[in-house]
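To: structure subgroup
Subject: Chain for Friday's discussion

All,

I'm putting the inputs and outputs inline so they're searchable in the archive.
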Amino acid sequence: MIVEFECPHCKIDLRAENNIADPSGICPACNKTFTVPQKKLNKTKIKTNQPFIQQI
C-alpha cells in the first residue's frame, strides 16, 4: 500500500510503500530515519518487488 506523508524531520512531502514487516525508511532529502505511517493513500494496489521512497 502506498502512503503520502511528511518527513517528521525536514517536513518534505514523501510517498512510500507501507511495508508492515519493515515500516522504516530514510528521507531522500535529509537522510534521517522515519517510520512510514499506516494511513492508506487510496485503494489502488501497486505491484512491485522493491519498496520505494519518493520525494513528491
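Points worth raising on Friday:
The beta strands are 2-6, 13-17, 24-26, 33-35, 53-55.
The longest strand covers residues 2-6.

D.
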